[in-house]
Amino acid sequence: MAVVSIDGISLEISIALIDELEVGDCVLVHVGYALAKIDPTEAKRTLELLQELGSEGERRS
Fold this sequence. Notes:
Helix content: 25-40%
Order of helices and strands: EEEEH
Largest sheet: 2 strands, antiparallel
Structural class: alpha+beta
Strand content: 25-35%
Strand order of the largest sheet: 1-2
Number of helices: 1
């Protein structure tokens, strides 16, 4: 098990599906499981895209 932080929200996830993780690694998380280790640049860009999509949804409401 590990604790991850996503946009300031911390949650406990299972890391049983991934070998050789270290503190500070970026992972793809789905329903409480780390599915894959990803590049920090890719992780940053993905979070930026999700924030943009959230902003678009708020403007349309």
